[in-house]
Design brief:
The complex is a heterodimer. By secondary structure, chain A is mostly helical. Chain A contains four helices and no strands. Chain A has helices spanning 8-35, 42-45, 64-93, 95-117. Chain B folds into three domains: 1-78, Four Helix Bundle (Hemerythrin (Met), subunit A) (Up-down Bundle), CATH 1.20.120.1200; 79-117; 131-167. Chain B contains nine helices and no strands. Chain B has helices at residues 2-23, 27-47, 51-75, 80-85, 87-113, 134-145, 147-168, 182-187, 190-193. Chain B is elongated, with a radius of gyration of 29 Å. The termini of chain B are far apart. In chain B, 14% of the residues are buried. Classes of the chains: A mainly alpha, B mainly alpha.
Chain lengths: 124, 207
């Protein structure tokens, strides 16, 4: 069983953060409701652009290159995640683990070279 | 006591944010609820003692997968009316997938009831693993017994990388700016870059 008592400060921080964020959200709402005029109207929530109604939907389609960058980031993120248990145990496991990780890194480096040379990292 | 309270806090938040992931009308809000669910799942993982899995949830799922989801959601041109229209037609399929997931849950609980997994190797040559952190246990198993599967994971990652590039990367359009050729810049000499002219008086410069 893992000793969870070390996580108690994090839990306390979490509870304080939850309380403060709830306070920051609901306190201004409550104060505004109690002190100000409360006249909700659909027109107040409608889009409004320099005196005109909005011309088009503000959400435009993203370029597919963002997806490419994100998926390449995931792959190298996973590579880094695999390094953590390796770094703790490589001295116990010896050369086989070391060589295995070097082969793994080599495989991904092949991919990295391909990625670099094919221009997937360039952003014009 | 505190652990029980924390468990119910995290479990309630996981369930609530999972429900809101489905119910949110805006897909970007769905992804944000999903991120909250990932964070609380990390809290649950810490409670059961799987600290490395919790760290992975935050690093990989919140840090990378959620960003990927956000980009995909923003990339797709989602029409809400069209999405709603397919609901009745796809309802049996959704029910079928939900049943498959339910069967997997029951199987998982059954497998858990059947007994604990042995972390050591079958012949008992590995040292008892209980007194070490689960990071070390994981490393011992992953880089010892399952080394070849680990290399296979590397090859899968390579395939994913090449596949993503092949699917989405369009070659550079002709005449695109912004590509820096450092070798070309370094090779450049003052003689090629500038040209001295001595125009005669009364005549212009011929370029």
């Amino acid at each position: 069983m893992v000793d969870l008592s070390q996580y108690l400060p994090i839990l306390i921080f979490l509870i304080i953060a939850l309380g403060l964020s709830a306070l920051f959200v609901f306190l201004p709402m409550g104060v505004a409701r109690l002190t100000g005029a409360h006249n909700p109207d659909a027109e107040k929530l409608s889009e409004y652009e320099c005196g005109f109604p909005a011309f088009e939907d503000p959400r435009s389609q993203f370029d597919v290159r963002f997806y490419l960058v994100a998926i390449l980031f995931i792959i190298f993120d996973l590579e880094a995640a695999f390094l953590f248990p390796w770094a703790v145990t490589v001295f116990d496991l010896g050369w086989s683990a070391w060589i295995g990780m070097m082969i793994f890194l080599g495989i991904l480096t092949v991919g990295f070279v391909y990625e670099w040379k094919s221009g997937a990292l360039d952003w014009e | 006591m505190i652990q029980t309270l924390a468990f119910y806090l995290f479990a309630f938040l996981v369930l609530a944010s999972g429900v809101f992931t489905i119910l949110a009308r805006n897909p970007v809000h769905s992804v944000l609820w999903l991120i909250l669910a990932f964070f609380n799942a990390a809290g649950l993982m810490i409670l059961v003692g799987a600290e490395f899995i919790a760290a992975l949830l935050v690093i990989v799922y919140v840090g990378a997968v959620a960003v990927l989801f956000l980009f995909v959601v923003m990339m797709l041109d989602i029409d809400f009316a069209e999405l709603r229209a397919g609901f009745v037609k796809n309802f049996p399929l959704g029910i079928a997938i939900a049943l498959v997931l339910l069967a997997e849950l029951i199987l998982g609980i059954g497998a858990y009831r059947a007994g604990a997994l042995e972390l050591g190797v079958p012949d008992g040559s590995a040292a008892p693993l209980m007194d070490r952190s689960n990071l070390e246990n994981l490393g011992t198993v992953l880089y010892g017994k399952y080394l070849f599967l680990f290399e296979a994971a590397g090859i899968i990652l390579l395939v994913a990388m090449v596949g993503a590039i092949a699917l989405t990367h369009r070659g550079r359009p002709e005449g695109a700016r912004g590509h820096q050729d450092i070798g070309k810049q370094v090779r450049r000499r003052p003689g090629e870059a500038t040209e001295m002219k001595k125009p005669e008086i009364g005549k212009g410069v011929e370029l």
